[in-house]
Amino acid sequence: MKHALLAGALASAILAAAAPARAADAICYNCPPEWADWGSMLKAIKADTGIDVPQDNKNSGQSLTQIIAEKASPVADVTYLGVTFGIKAKDAGVTQPYEPKGFAEIPAGLKDPEGHWFTIHSGTLGLFINKDALGKMPVPACWSDLLKPEYKGLVGYLDPTSAFVGYVGAVAVNGAMGGTLDDFKPGIAFFKKLQANQPIVPKQTSYARVLSGEIPILLDYDFNAYRARYSDMGNFQFVIPCEGTVVVPYVMSMVKGAPHPEAAKKVLDYVLSDKGQAMWAKAYLRPARAIELPKDVAARFLPAADYARAKPVDYARMEQAQKAFAEAYLNEVK
């Protein structure tokens, strides 16, 4: 038995020594391959830095919950979050400051001054539509169109109490209906009415479900709709609703006590580098740094006149309002 145990220990040691690359790995929470083309980004990080970052399909809320639960013994090195969750993570004491190369070029308001979180790209919230799945139904032009009986069973939105994009959708709808970050009653009323149309409400990224036609209309970002249309070559369309919408940044943070801090820093440097920012642009995201969009990419976006209906909001106030909104949604809608 002793010999067998010793042999096993030696074998484990040999295997560990034979795989030094694993020591350089970095763990990212909420880096899903089907979202924002993280799949290509993770491959590029591996090819250019040698750092293997596994895919991770959590959403922002799930990632923050797990990082807090693991606070005493962190597993993640970095995390990707909607901006309000980035603010929450700093407040929870689970991030550490780091200013990647290019940090100074990120506009004020889109980064924590100390480097606890910083924008890597942004998206515009609207309607991601599978036109083939709609059949003869007209493409909705406004938020209010989604309440029409003919769209019953055709509309989806991510759970706004868990997924950040779901909460962004709620903020966008609420503002379009006349609400504010201090008054979510118009948005809550909209979602209550929408229940009559039996919406599909997943918790996770649902890109593939739109591609398949299972969800013909999804409240989602422009970059996913453009990717579906131009990269997956399907009959898809993005609509910025007539009543208006919001533009929202996505951020990254270094986890406090990251097990692989040097690898974590290299990953964060990469996503903000010229090459990393260009990759986000090719995935139809607005880069955080002022790099010029490739002409072929710029030509695929909706006209500037449509984007004029998309506005920024007070993201710190948006974060502060999130808990109260979630409680109201759970009490009145679900």
Quick structural overview:
Helix content is 41%, strand content 14%. The protein is an alpha/beta fold and 334 residues long.
Layout of secondary structure:
Layout: H1 2-17, E1 28-29, H2 38-49, H3 60-69, E2 78-82, H4 83-91, E3 95-96, E4 118-130, H5 131-134, E5 155-156, H6 164-176, H7 185-194, H8 207-211, E6 217-221, H9 222-231, E7 236-239, E8 245-255, H10 261-272, H11 274-282, E9 286-287, H12 295-298, H13 304-307, E10 310-311, H14 315-332
Helix pairs in contact: 4-14, 6-7
Supply the key terms.
334 residues, alpha/beta, ten-stranded mixed β-sheet, disordered N terminus
DSSP helical segment count: 14
Label the overall shape. Answer: globular
Cα gyration radius (Å): 21 Å
Low-confidence stretches: 1-24
Tally the beta strands. Answer: 10
The largest sheet is: 10 strands, mixed
Binned strand content: 5-15%
Structural class: alpha/beta
- Helical percent range? 40-55%
**Which H/E pattern describes the elements?**
HEHHEHEEHEHHHEHEEHHEHHEH
C-alpha termini separation: 58 Å
Q: What is the typical, i.e. mean, pLDDT?
A: 91
